[in-house]
Amino acid sequence: MVYLIDGHNLIAAVPGIHLDQVDDETQLIQVLKEFCRQRKKRVEVFFDNAPPGQARTHKYGMVTAHFIRQGGTADQAIVARLRHIGRAAPNWTVVTSDREVQAAARAARAQLISSQDFARQLGESGPVSQSTSPETDPNLDVSDEEVADWLKEFKRGPRSE
């Protein structure tokens, strides 16, 4: 079973993580990593409004995070992912409280769970409110490709506007 998760929708339902926090997405990824580790599940989480130049997909162990560029939405990306999955959709679970995404999940015959119900499952997997930053988490996976991208970015120096 693989989960497709509307990230910001779930953050709003998870105690201890708030959408106005700078590292809300990182905190949710850490919680999802622990959930995956304990339950031996895979997760794809989608986040809206990636800053310009930051839209990307990144793997963190069994969690794949999709950062959707501005102009697109996590909802649209989840619906597109369901279309791509096709006939295998019944083997996937969509986590959202958004009615349009729920309707798309039902139409694809994917399983469905509300963000609030999934947040309760996360709470059963261990402490949800632990705040772990990339600097303090030795288990945060950073690919060689991401390191190379950042090194290139730093070598360019400041951008003139």
Q: What this model shows, in words?
A:
- By secondary structure, this protein is an alpha/beta fold.
- The protein has one domain (2-156): Rossmann fold (3-Layer(aba) Sandwich).
- The protein has 6 helices and 6 strands, in the order βααβββαβαβαα.
- It has helices at 7-11, 24-39, 74-85, 99-108, 115-124, 144-156, and strands at residues 2-6, 42-50, 56-60, 63-69, 92-95, 111-113.
- The chain has a 6-stranded mixed β-sheet, sandwiched between helices.
- The termini are far apart.
- The model is unreliable at 128-136 (pLDDT under 50).
Helix content: 40-55%
What is the topology, as strand order, of the major beta sheet? 3-4-2-1-5-6
Oligomer: single chain
Class by helix and strand content?
A: alpha/beta
Q: Predict the CATH topology.
A: Rossmann fold
Can I get a quick summary?
With 161 residues, this protein is of the alpha/beta class. It has helices at residues 7-11, 24-39, 74-85, 99-108, 115-124, 144-156; strands at 2-6, 42-50, 56-60, 63-69, 92-95, 111-113.
Throw out a few tags for this protein.
single chain, 161 residues, alpha/beta, Rossmann fold, 6-stranded mixed sheet, 6 helices, 6 strands
How are the SSEs placed, and which strands pair?
Layout: E1 2-6, H1 7-11, H2 24-39, E2 42-50, E3 56-60, E4 63-69, H3 74-85, E5 92-95, H4 99-108, E6 111-113, H5 115-124, H6 144-156
Parallel strand pairs: 1-2, 1-5, 2-4, 5-6
Antiparallel strand pairs: 3-4
Helix pairs in contact: 3-4
